[in-house]
Amino acid sequence: MEGGGNSKGTGLGGLFGTGGVGYSHADLAGVPLTGMSPLSPYLNLDPRYLVQDTDEFILPTGANKTRGRFELAFFTIGGCCMTGAAFGALNGLRLGLKETQNMVWSKPRNVQILNMVTRQGALWANTLGSLALLYSAFGVIIEKTRGAEDDLNTIAAGTLTGMLYKSTGGVRGIARGGIAGLTLTGLYALYNNWEHMKGSIARQSL
Questions:
Q1: Which of 18, 49, 92, 112 has its CA 20 to 30 A from that of 41?
Q2: What letters, b where the CB count within 10 A reaches 16 and e where it falls short, cover 170-187?
């Protein structure tokens, strides 16, 4: 009777998938999984499929993974125009309040302040936008001519931009513009490579 009961229970268990020999996690802990990575305890998914060994984006043949000067030129020019407009508006507001400080608050004073704000904003936006346009154009030309992209292009483009922008001031103006462009771009290149220079000095000291 006991044998019949066991076989009946086994048969019903096999039918409904609840019978048979069960294995605990401790029993399966020492079983090697050949060619398989450990499964995530939260997801029934092999973690190997979550690793991306290839690039995230598909690039055209011969294209660089980083944006060049031509692609960055639009962002540079637009950013400089917006920065110049914001700075000019604040400067115009300061000048307008200073020039009309003896006037009472009235419509003529508001119009004069507004005119000063718009005039200064347009002036500074035009100035910085022109500088950014010259800098970007020189940078693209130098990059295409040399066939390389490094800090030398940045310094050369900045120097030429200052020289051309101040060319109407004669030889002295050209020299001043070139020195100003060289100084600003040199400081930018130094800031850009500061961590690399610190690492090189630390390795040489060892």
A1: 18
A2: eeeebeebbebbbebbee
CA dihedral of residues 5, 6, 12, 13 (deg, nearest 10): 150
User: d(Cα 41, Cα 30) in Å, to the nearest integer?
Assistant: 17
The closest of 190, 124, 125, 197 to 154, measured between CA atoms, is 190
More confident residue, 13 or 123: 123
Place of tokens 């092999």: 46
Please name which of 134, 146, 145 lies closest in space to residue 73, comparing C-alpha atoms.
134
What does the pLDDT look like over 78-98, one tens digit per residue?
A: 999 999 999 999 999 999 999
d(CA 55, CA 66): 13
81: nearest Cα among 92, 70, 73, 93: 73
pTM score? 0.62
Structure tokens at 99: 């020039």
CA angle (82, 85, 87) in 5-degree steps: 110
- The pLDDT value recorded for residue 7 is 46
